[in-house]
Q: What sequence folds into this?
């Protein structure tokens, strides 16, 4: 579904990603882990089109994304739930979700998806008329995920949904993401620092370090790898 | 001064303040919209007001396209039509000039493009002023309507005290309120309005939602220009104007927008209303040369007491 091949990105001469190759098949749950500054967020921004690659190719559903503008990519079914939530603070919760449904596919399924979002996150129905900026961090994350779901995505990209949240809230968020994957059949690409939980959910994982993929494979392979055990899981 | 004429003067200043204030309010919304959505400080807003006046003038008298409507209706229809005309002018200015120094292109740069915007909008202002001088000449114009010299007289019920409601200003005020209300409804309840607000709130996130932020910024700039132009067209019915008229009003627009709370579009209307009100009311006490000074005194007081503006609000969690 999503194929990233030999992707390199530089910010004014500074290499952020080098020769990254990554594949997400339809229906998969893929996780990218790695330390701060490894290039995880840059990878997402490049897939969304707000950062331009210096080399390499990204294709989605067989289409080369090079000539497709960032805004247009959402209309193809790529939903990006950005790092740090980035909700529309001055819009109500309801309006945030409506904006998620901006692409045609989202509008067509709106009555169905809004019910689904409210089932997954009942608190959003309660807070529908509240400004999103007044919500707690966990609630804002729910708005951000709900907003991503509202476009009826083929691929849902989540950038560190656990960032800055209490462990109990993180558990809920992870549970919901798994539900979205299993029950709604949405393909998931997840970036996480909470490596153990994230890898446990996924079919396939990538380890990104200083802009390069240093390791990839199914959950069992990564878990068996000494480097992953030591650096990310704290196991010996 | 006896009580009778005092009552008459106060009430007349009051009604003049409200009618003029509503027109100023509409004028301020144009500037407030551009700043609120694009974060561009547009120094050329006064010249767009001027273009609105001339657009209306040429529609009504120059080209005579609206001559068939007669002198009572024509000027007001002309004012409304100045809106879409200047919208197109604004959209073109954005496409060729403003878009190069604003929007996603400059988001995240050191100054967010503000230095470039400052120079570009100042330059546009100078070009439009002096270009206007070449094209329109320096003789003052008005869009004449017999309504501006006739008034509805309302007896107050205290002696002979009477309130005079200028018919042209009254109609202009009604059109201003209706236009402001229409814009409010569009911004609040339509998909376009919500997308404009989303693009203003967080342009990057809006892009992730599939909103073409540059397209919406162009629309916001055009709308901001068009709305100020409608106010210009309305003012042209009771005011004589030339190519340099914008300078007097850009100051009023900035005070109105800051008073209302920067970023709050409807706040800009109330800010403009306050400015108009203060200006007309101070005429009771001060010579006309000091009217604008009074605006700034009130402006400073409000900014001191409520730095976020009258209607500014913060959506940040405390």
A:
């Amino acid at each position: 579904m999503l194929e990233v091949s030999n992707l390199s990105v530089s910010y004014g001469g500074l290499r952020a990603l080098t020769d990254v190759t990554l594949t997400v098949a339809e229906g998969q749950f893929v996780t990218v882990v790695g330390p701060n500054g490894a290039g995880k967020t840059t990878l997402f921004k490049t897939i969304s089109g707000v950062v331009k690659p210096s080399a390499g190719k990204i294709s989605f559903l067989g289409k080369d994304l090079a000539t497709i503008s960032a805004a247009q990519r959402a209309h193809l079914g790529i939903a990006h739930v950005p790092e740090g939530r980035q909700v529309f603070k001055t819009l109500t919760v309801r309006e945030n979700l409506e904006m998620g449904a901006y692409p045609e596919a989202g509008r067509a399924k709106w009555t169905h998806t809004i019910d689904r979002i409210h089932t997954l996150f009942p608190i959003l129905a309660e807070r529908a008329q509240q400004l999103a900026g007044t919500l707690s961090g966990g609630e804002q994350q729910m708005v951000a995920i709900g907003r991503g779901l509202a476009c009826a995505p083929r691929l849902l990209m989540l950038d560190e949904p656990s960032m800055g949240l209490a462990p109990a809230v993180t558990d809920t968020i992870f549970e919901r993401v798994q539900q979205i994957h299993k029950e709604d059949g949405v393909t998931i690409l997840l970036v996480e620092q909470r490596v153990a939980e994230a890898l446990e959910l996924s079919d396939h994982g990538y380890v990104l370090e200083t802009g390069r993929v240093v390791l990839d494979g199914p959950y069992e392979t990564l878990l068996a790898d000494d480097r992953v055990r030591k650096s990310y899981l704290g196991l010996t | 001064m006896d009580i009778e004429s005092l009552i008459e003067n106060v009430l007349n200043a009051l009604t003049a303040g409200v009618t003029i204030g509503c027109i100023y309010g509409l004028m301020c919304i144009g500037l407030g919209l551009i700043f609120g959505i694009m974060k561009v400080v547009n120094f050329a807003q006064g010249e767009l007001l001027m273009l609105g006046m001339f657009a209306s003038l040429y529609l009504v008298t120059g080209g005579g396209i609206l001559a068939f409507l007669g002198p009572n209706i024509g000027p007001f229809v002309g004012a409304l039509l100045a809106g879409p005309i200047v919208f197109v002018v604004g959209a073109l200015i954005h496409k060729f000039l403003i878009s190069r120094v604003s929007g996603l292109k400059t988001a995240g740069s050191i100054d967010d493009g503000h230095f470039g915007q400052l120079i570009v909008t100042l330059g546009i202002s100078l070009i439009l002023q002096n270009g206007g001088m070449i094209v329109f000449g320096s003789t003052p114009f008005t869009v004449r309507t017999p309504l501006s010299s006739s008034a509805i007289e309302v007896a107050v019920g205290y002696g002979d005290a009477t309130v005079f409601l200028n018919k042209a200003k009254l109609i202009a005020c009604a059109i201003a309120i209706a236009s402001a209300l229409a814009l409010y409804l569009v911004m609040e309840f339509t998909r376009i309005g919500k997308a404009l607000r989303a693009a203003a709130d967080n342009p990057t996130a809006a892009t992730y939602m599939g909103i073409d932020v540059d397209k919406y910024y162009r629309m916001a700039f055009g709308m901001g220009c068009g709305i100020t132009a409608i106010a210009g067209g309305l003012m042209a019915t009771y005011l004589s104007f030339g190519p340099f008229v914008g300078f007097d009003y850009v100051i009023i627009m900035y005070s109105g927008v800051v008073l209302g709370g920067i970023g709050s579009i409807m706040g800009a209307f109330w800010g403009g209303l306050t400015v108009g009100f203060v200006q007309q009311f101070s005429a009771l006490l001060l010579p006309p040369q000091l009217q604008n000074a009074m605006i700034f005194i009130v402006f400073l007081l409000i900014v001191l007491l409520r730095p976020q503006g009258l209607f500014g609000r913060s959506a940040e969690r405390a």
In short: The first strand of chain A starts at residue 2 and ends at 11. The CA atoms of residues 28 and 187 of chain A lie 5 Å apart. The beta strands of chain A are 2-11, 14-24, 29-33, 55-60, 63-64, 78-81, 155-159, 187-192, 204-209, 212-218. The mean pLDDT of chain A is 92.
